[in-house]
Amino acid sequence: MKILITGAKGQLGSQIRSIIERRNSELGKIDKIYYDVEVKYVDFKEMDITKLDVVLNFVRDLKPDIIINCAAYTNVDKCESDLDNAFKVNSIGPRNLAIAAEKVNAKLLHVSTDYVFNGMGNIPFKEYDIPQPVSVYGKTKLLGEQYVRENCSKYFIVRTAWLYGKYGKNFVYTIVNAAKERGHLDVVDDQRGNPTNAEDLAYHILKIALTEEYGLYHCTGEGECSWYDFACRIVEYAGIDCTVNQVTSDKLNRAAKRPSFSSLDNMMLRSTTGNEMRDWEKALEAFIEDLKQSEGRI
């Protein structure tokens, strides 16, 4: 079996690679089919997903059985001013991969976001709820989902949220570093969602990709909190002496509007392949403990 992973040097792509190479995850062993799989890990330098001819030629030559698209333009604020590039990466890129996947009869697993929702309400969004994004990032990611549906018959769309992991920049590292440097933090308490450990997401992506349970999935840590709650737990588990203060979003003056409530319900996972996503607090505690023991970052 051959797998093509795009955005392979990013946070999620790197986590998937780590699990495949370890043949194991914190949630358990992965399927033995991955032990001998041929994986092609690419970033934009190896294959620019925004160029259809490049993608078609690359996929035609490789003939993968599965394509996992982790590539995305994730700078939410910059998307507001860099519309064309956000559109190319988040919308055209998935379209190109979908067209190419269909031509070689490959499965396509595309990673999307909670930002496709408008943030109104207080009940976790299910896969059947109607998206209504409020930012350029959310709008371009939603269009990417639509292009995948239109151009590929064997697709999985996996929405996640508030992702953190060992690789790259994320909220956990930001809070840890700021807490140690300053001793006090101001964090918004009027946005709620699901912190998600990249280890858990990567494990589920590899599990889903081997099935024929095609469709739309939500895949986030269990339970919800505010960014303030999230920061408080990070500081607590890391053992840093730091005061965390609550502020409202309007104090930050960001370019892009964030959904005030974007908690997702993993209904499709529960109904098909099985939901093994950990409670967000347990997953975070395990992550920080691992950093203390092996990474030396705390």
Automatic annotation (TrEMBL):
Residues 1-291 form the RmlD-like substrate binding domain. Keywords: NADP, Oxidoreductase. InterPro entries: dTDP_dehydrorham_reduct, NAD(P)-bd_dom_sf, RmlD-like-bd. One of its GO terms (cellular component) is cytosol. Its EC number is 1.1.1.133. Catalyzes the reduction of dTDP-6-deoxy-L-lyxo-4-hexulose to yield dTDP-L-rhamnose. This is dTDP-4-dehydrorhamnose reductase. It comes from Clostridium muellerianum. The gene is rfbD.
